[in-house]
Amino acid sequence: IKKIAVLTSGGDAPGMNPCIRAVVRTAIYHKLEVVGIRQGYQGLIDNNMYDMSPRSVSNILDLGGTILKTARCLPFRTDEGMEIAYNNLKAQGIDALVVIGGDGTFTGALRFSKKYPDIAVMGVPGTIDNDLCGTDYTLGFDTATNTVIEALDKIRDTADAHDRLFFIEVMGRDSGCIALRAGISCGAEAILLPEKETAIHELIEGLKAGEHNKKSSSIVIVAEGDKHGGAYDVAQMVKEEVKNYDVKVTILGHLQRGGSPSAFDRILGSRLGYAAVLGLLNGETQKMAGLKGNSVRLTSLEEALKVHEYKLEEDLMQMVEILSI
Ligand code: ATP
Asked: Is the predicted pLDDT of residue 161 greater than 80, yes or no?
């Protein structure tokens, strides 16, 4: 390969910038030309690209978001859109593509690569949801979890001062990974997860036991993918039964996506960006660079997309109940 392009796509995630930096510098070190594509697949279709140098990625390690911008792009889902993208890449002499994003991004990359195998593709998992197979962690998950923890610590202060019961909704789509880890870190009294059925009557019993045990505050985390609806719905179902608490709801929302990447996400982004380029240089394609047991591994995009096989750790889920008595 001679010329590679890099893009970020889907939801932004802290750690994308360190990854872009690693891709650009590793590629240039190995005498490749590098093109940055703005706004994900939309930029491929709109020919929104620019040549990058080592200086294009100076001082971005600490930045949240993505300097390449990201987008959700409907036309790339069509054969016509893909053809335009392909022609634009060919016109620039680009023969390899690094895509940083989540499952939708990889689904698009795999389809594209099967249609046009002369352009090698390599994925890097960039999503706060941590919902991909083939990697223990995705970029942004650690930072987002730390952001949630910071918010929960503050909420605990006010909850405690007023004998309040808080229902906090956190992001993660169909994955309860952020909810579970943030909940353990902040001593949540209960965590409602998409991966685990929790009956409302059990939740109420647990909260009543907390009242009985003289807990001055309670925090219930509701993962956004939880089947009961959302934090407001759960609060409504529980309110009448726990009269000693003043019930409040907070939806943390998009603040969870922002912020300077944690040390973990900077290192992960650097490592996976570096590995993605080395993989392409070794002739690999249709793979994702991920971290398994602190080793970088390449997994086929097909494997990485088996999201339904991703499981939360049973022991962590069981531990929550015991540690919150
Ligand atoms: P996150 O997990 O943060 O939401 P994501 O990568 O899953 O990230 P999506 O919006 O689902 O985010 O996907 C990003 C882009 O990938 C889409 O906007 C679209 O351009 C492309 N894409 C998704 N699915 C397909 C598909 N089946 N075929 C072609 N392209 C697709």
From this structure: yes
Which atom in ligand 1 lies closest to the alpha carbon of residue 106? Answer: 6
Distance 103 CA to ligand 1 centre (A): 6
Question: How do residues 55-100 score in pLDDT, each as one tens digit?
Answer: 999 999 999 999 999 999 999 999 999 999 999 999 999 999 999 9
- Mean pLDDT computed over every residue of the chain: 95
Q: Helices (H), strands (E): how many in the chain?
A: 11, 11
Q: Which residues contact ligand 1 via a Cβ below 6 A?
A: 9-11, 41, 72-73, 76-77, 101-105, 107-108, 111, 127, 129
Active site residue 79: no
Using alpha carbons, select from 81, 79, 75, 76 the residue that is nearest to residue 99. Answer: 76
Q: Residues annotated as binding site?
A: 11, 21-25, 72-73, 102-105, 127-129, 156, 164, 171-173, 187-189, 215-217, 224, 248, 254-257
Nearest CA to ligand 1 atom 26: 108
- The residue contributing the CA closest to ligand 1 atom 20 is 73
Q: Exposed, middle or buried by CB within 10 Å (0-12, 13-18, 19+), for 63?
A: middle
Q: Give this prediction's pTM.
A: 0.96
Question: What pLDDT digit, counting tens, does each position of 248-304 carry?
Answer: 999 999 999 999 999 999 999 999 999 999 999 999 999 999 999 999 999 999 999
Alpha-carbon distance of 6 to 34, in angstroms, equals 8
Is there a contact between 285 and 156 (Cβ–Cβ < 8 Å)? Answer: no
Ligand 1 atom with the smallest distance to the CA of 74 is 20
Beta strands at 287-292 and 295-300: parallel, antiparallel or unpaired: antiparallel
Averaged pLDDT for residues 302-317: 83
Q: Which among 129, 131, 142, 226 is annotated as catalytic?
A: 129
